[in-house]
Structure formats: C-alpha cells, structure tokens
Amino acid sequence: MLHRKQRLGFTLIELLVVIAIIAILIALLVPAVQKVREASARTQCKNNLKQIVLASHGYLDANKCLPPGSTVCTTAADPTVNGTCLGTMPFLLPYLDQAPLFQKIPAAFFDLNPVAEAATGPWWSNGAAVSASFTQLAVLTCPSAQLYTPVSIGESLYSGTIPGIASMDIQENAGNLPLGRTNYVANAGYIGNSNDSNQVNCGPYFPLSQTKISQITDGTSNTLAFGEALGGTVSPPRDYAITWMGGGAMPTGYGIVNATDWYNFSSNHGGMVHFAFCDGTVRTISTGVNFSTFVYASGMADGHVVDLIVLAQ
User: CB–CB of 137/180 below 8 Å?
Assistant: First the structure.
C-alpha cells in the first residue's frame, strides 16, 4: 500500500503568491485609511470652527459686540507704540470652557484703550501671560495642520493688520518655543482694517474692533467670521507658526490658497479651506474660488450678497 508524504509548509511559489496578495491588499487599504483619516480631520476642523464662532457669540451676548481682531502694537500716529498685541482667541477663552486659563492672563492686557495698552507692554514680556501662552488647546488645532512641526522663521508673538495701514505685520521670536499654536484666524476683510477708503470691504474683526451685529448689513449668513491659515508652507520645517495668544485677524486681499505665505487663508485639506460665518454656520470654500467673490464674502457691509454655492466651486 502506497503512503503519500505529508507536506509541512508552503512552497516558495505559494509563499510569493501570498506575499503578492497581501501587498495588493495593503495598497488598496492604505488610500482608504488615509481618506477616512482626512475625513475625520475635516469633521474635527469644522467642529473646532463651530465652537470658535459660537464662543464669539457668547462674547457678543456678554459685551454687546464681537471680540476685537486684535489689540494694538502700533498706530498710524505713533509706530513706536508697543502695546499688548493680543489676538482674537484670548478674548474667547471663557466661552471655550477655558475660564481658568483666561484668568491667568492679567486683566490689563484686555483693555482696548491704546494708551492703557502701551503702558502694559507686550504680553511676551509678562511672565503670567507667557506661562498661559504655553497651553496647547485642541479646539484651536486642526488635525491636518501639523501645527507643532518645527518652524524655520518664527512663531508669531503678534500677527495681524496695522491700524490705518493697508498691510500685514508680524512680530516673531526665534521660533520653536513651547508656545500654544493655532491655525484659525479671524476675518479682517479686504485690506484688514476699518480705514479703507469706503469702509465697505471691512470685515467684522480688525484692530480694536467692537463690531455690533447691526453693522453686518450684508447679513451674518453671508459674512466670513473665522477661517483656516497654516502660517506658510508646511513641508517641514514650516515658515511661521501662528500662536493663539498673538495671532490676529487676517485680510482676504491676499487670497485663498492651499499653502503658501503666512498671510494667506490656507489649509491641508486639498483644494478647500473651512470657514465659519457670522451666523454660526461652517462651510467649505474652494481654493479656486473667484477672488472678488471671496473678498465680497469677507466684507460685512459691501452690499454684495454672495452665492454660497459659488464659494464651494
């Protein structure tokens, strides 16, 4: 009687076939996992913006106006004035469930009187404010933004528009300090301050602004409030990192792109940037949107009602 010898393993060919099948499955699964991860990141980003814009409504309820785009570092009359230079986010802390953190920042830094601000000095020279600024806040961080990668130039102690001057300014440190960062900034409108020739392209947030809802005559559902900004290109090292303590409002006159300079609204979401509108809704705007359409969406009283569908195309 014949007995067949039992095989104890795979042949080389069978093993290679199995390896090839596994490689194909991995190749199919990795893009799917990446898509799921990015979809999750986009959802989290939208949720963050929703909380931020609702926090601004909480500030509105308490103060009868929206928070300022920034306090003041310089003025047109005296460029040497060096004030507190807080951005918008510190004003929102109590409404983001961060009251203890808010209380760590000396109250004098929230004074919107330029003379008082100049007397306090900048926040980065105050030990209590610096200690508070080290806090990393998840609600101010989009998972896709890679915020805490190293920077090549610096972190913004102050960034935003200059009163009376149609430009952006940034004050940076040597970079890569343990400062809390953000990739969300307020909308300052076309040139970023309230002194444009007709004051019609101004956004709700600019230096020392105290915008009332009644001033948003284009309608809160048609006017941008907050959007994403990466701080420049992010292929490590990134250019700048925007700090939540000092990152002020950004003008729309420099456009919307995927990732380029620090003064552009931008994201890592691939052809789209998320924005919160003044009515509390969060929408996606395409990086290919017409420039004028984007600017009109940022003005709070320019008389142009933007087709929201066009913004996403």
Answer: yes
Q: Given the DSSP bridges, would you call strands 250-251 and 272-277 parallel, antiparallel or unpaired?
A: unpaired
Model pLDDT for residues 218-245, shown as the tens digit of each residue:
999 999 999 999 988 766 677 889 999 9
Q: H or E element: which one contains 100?
A: helix 99-104
The tokens of 182 are what? 């953000």
Count of Cβ atoms closer than 10 Å to residue 12 Cβ:
8
Which long-range contacts (C-beta less than 8 Å, at least 24 apart) are formed by 89-95? 89/52, 89/140, 89/182, 89/184, 89/244, 89/245, 89/247, 90/244, 90/245, 91/59, 91/67, 92/52, 92/55, 92/56, 92/58, 92/59, 92/67, 94/58, 95/54, 95/55, 95/56, 95/58, 95/59
H-type alpha helices, 121-216 = 127-133
C-alpha 313/C-alpha 289 separation (Å) is 6
> Using CA atoms, how far apart are residues 251 and 204, in angstroms rounded to an integer?
11
* HSE-up of residue 294 (Cα within 13 Å, Cβ side): 29
Nearest alpha-carbon partner for 68 in 55, 83, 86: 86
Tell me whether residue 233 is exposed, middle or buried, using C-beta atoms within 10 angstroms of its C-beta: 0 to 12, 13 to 18, 19 or more. Answer: middle
| Residues 88, 71 contacting (CB under 8 angstroms) | no
The dihedrals phi and psi of 248, each to the nearest 5 degrees, come to -90, -165
Q: Which two tokens stand for residue 120?
A: 């306090």
Query: Using one digit for the tens of pLDDT, what is the confidence trace for 283-295?
Result: 999 998 988 899 9
> Which of 307, 249, 303, 296 lies closest to 69, judged by CA?
249
Q: 92 by DSSP, 3-state: which?
A: helix
CA distance 228 to 250: 10
Listed residue (278, 249, 222) closest to 59, CA to CA: 278
Tokens of 185: 């900034």
Indicate whether this model's pTM tops 0.90: no
